[in-house]
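Bit of a strange request maybe. I'm writing a small parser for structure token strings and I need a real example to test against, not something I typed by hand. Could someone generate the tokens for this chain?
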Amino acid sequence: MCDTACVRRPGGMLFAKSSDRPVDEVQVLRWFGRRPPGEQPVQATYVPVPDAGAAAVVGSQPTWMWGFEHGVNEHGVAIGNEKVWTVDDPRAVPPALVGMDLVRLGLERGATADDALDAVTALLAAHGQGGSGEEGGDEPYWSSFLIVDGRSGWVLETSGRSWVAQPVGDGAAISNRLTLTTGWTRSSPDVAPGTNWDERRAPDAPTGIADHRLAATRACVARGPDVTPADLVATLRDHGTGPWGAPGRPATAPPPPPEDVRDDWSGVTVCMHVRGYQCTTASMVADLPAAAGEPLRVWATLGSACTAVFLPVAVLPGEAGREPRAVVPAVLGDPDAWRSFSALGRRVEAPGEAGAAALATVRAVLDPIEAAAWEEADALWRGGAGPDAWRAAAEGWDRAVRSALAALG
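Reply from user aminoacidic:
Good idea to test on real output. This should exercise your parser:
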């Protein structure tokens, strides 16, 4: 389960995604450079697909699979996906492309959000969806997607090879349910004009599992151009009581996660802590510029958003025909660091005052590191810093985070 949102800002689009996965599933951030088209197919998680080449991408990847939970490419296209339930049974089809494969393939093939939508839907038609989205389990599912660039974007909702898509306008939010009805403007050939897409929703699938989280992310989107990347971070940390913990604006009393799910599903929050089942395992916020020459700004983290540091990631344009480069703090690609952050997430799930005290301790250590990294990165982006300056900064953030993890035990 996940949450994804975008909101238009002056001169671009903001994007945010929290990835909710099994509590012990490692997920890391990786950079992949450009790849020319190849004669041999690319092996996705379950099936091969023709190699059409790839743009450079930075993606958050569960280590057992080929695809991404979310990511951004060199062109400033960002994609995140969600698990959705429909009247069509995903167990009735053989393994094919999973939603995370489609996220990665859309980023590899899309120079714009429109291009990425075309790529994903063409791949759906050619290969279909299928296969478990969890390692060693039997959890096949369909996906919805938020596909955006600095100018525009799409909500894409699927059921098998069928799909509909609707422009995001000034912003949109998706979660683990179908959200589109009759306002879609593009579809697969088998969906008749005027169809109410919500009729594909599985009648026995509770929408409450997503509705509380949608209310939280939609409230952020509704603020419109006043929303900042820091506001999106605070929204991704929502434990059901509202945004908190924006970088540079620490909470005086961080709200611990709810202790149970409750009958109305209100314990399933944007920063997810469904004990023993699923939790937030990685998150990303991106500021996608509309105009060429403006910096693409990305912040990413491992583990639960409430107990992690959103670290800046630099995606730097190539010079003189060279391909772009990324500077990713090493800690974001380290499986052992993910395990350390995951352990902090489990620590704050202690009942009562113990959980609240644990979260306050974690934030007291991590908040200054996060605030300093954001301030330093802002100066680097404003000044058009090159890769050497970014590498030096990233090495400093890496040392600070690893020292903090060691201090927190």
